[in-house]
Write a structure and sequence with these properties.
Elements (H helix, E strand, L loop, with lengths): L6 H18 L4 H8 L3 H9 L6 H10 L5 H14 L14 H12 L2 E6 L10 H9 L2 H4 L2 H18 L7 E7 L9 H14 L4 E5 L13 E5 L8 E6 L3 E5 L2 H17 L1 E2 L3 H6 L7
Parallel strand pairs: 1-2, 2-3
Antiparallel strand pairs: 1-4, 3-7, 4-5, 5-6
Length: 286
């Protein structure tokens, strides 16, 4: 079955398959450009996933690669159609980068989401008021109320999708104790601590104490997305503040981030343990 995955995952499946076909056929990007009479930038953007490829262009490209098997041809065309479906967050496209839209798409399809945050409560756990403070702390959004509100709404909509009762991704978050420092008023933080407590049954949250060996100066915030299908390599997104995320697909680098996450995870204490509850005590100093 090709369906059941979002447009970002299907677009990646297609671009990886097209790149593999080109390499197997011994063609360079310049060969494709000449044969298809496209610009080089178009070829690069299709293979990088920056743009979707139309079904007509795909048929022509597959013909150049010598794909004649009707089954393989049908699967590739179906991937192209699925990749062009409208994403649930498309209404926010004007307020976020294309890389962030892909981040949301991979988050939708991941079987396990692992995040590390050393500085702030992550977006998946933020209340509306906390999110608004974080978003409007950035100069661009401070002067553009419409964009700021759109970013906050998107953050809350993302939470609903990840923690919806019908979804079952495993969510693991390593949160540094320093990320629980006060942001805004005491009431905003009290509400934020309350929300984290309410979400605990739906995620695996562990907390790094101040005296742990982790150093946020060496490991910045990141999100690891792991997938159930072998067709979908795992990816890492680096939190590239203030407005973006950066994709890491290199397998060795992804493995390195996996190892970093596991190291951080074993240093931390469970949020529902005695030490974790002390850290999540709003009246405790942070």
């Amino acid at each position: 079955m090709l369906d059941g995955q979002g447009p970002a995952t299907n677009r990646r499946r297609l671009r990886l398959a097209l790149r593999q076909l080109r390499v197997e056929r011994g063609h360079s990007l310049e060969d494709v450009r000449h044969a298809m009479e496209w610009s080089l930038s178009k070829v690069i953007r299709i293979e990088s996933g920056a743009v979707s490829i139309s079904v007509n262009d795909l048929r022509a490209l597959l013909s150049f690669y010598g794909v004649v098997d009707s089954g393989e041809l049908g699967r590739m065309i179906e991937l192209a159609r699925l990749a062009r479906r409208r994403h649930w967050a498309a209404e926010y496209r004007d307020y976020v980068s294309p890389s962030y839209m892909d981040f949301l798409g991979y988050e939708d399809d991941a079987s396990r989401i692992s995040q590390y945050h050393p500085f702030l409560v992550p977006g998946l756990l933020q209340t509306q008021d906390y999110a608004r403070l974080v978003v409007t702390a950035r100069p661009h959004y401070r002067s553009d109320g419409q964009a700021a509100q759109a970013r906050v709404r998107l953050r809350l909509a993302r939470q609903e999708r990840v923690f919806a009762s019908g979804r079952t991704p495993a969510v693991r978050i390593v949160l540094d104790e320093r990320a629980l420092k006060r942001v805004g008023s005491r009431e905003i933080m009290r509400e934020q601590f309350r929300k984290i407590q309410e979400l605990l049954p739906r995620l695996d949250l562990v907390l790094l104490k101040r005296d742990s060996a982790a150093d946020p100066g060496f490991v910045g915030p990141f999100s690891l997305h792991e997938f159930a299908s072998e067709r979908d390599p795992d990816v890492v997104y680096l939190d590239n503040q203030p407005d973006d995320v950066a994709l890491v697909e290199d397998a060795e680098m992804v493995d390195a981030y996996k190892a970093s996450f596991e190291d951080l995870y074993v240093q931390a204490v469970p949020a529902d343990s005695e030490d974790g509850q002390k850290i999540l005590d709003f009246d405790a100093p942070h």
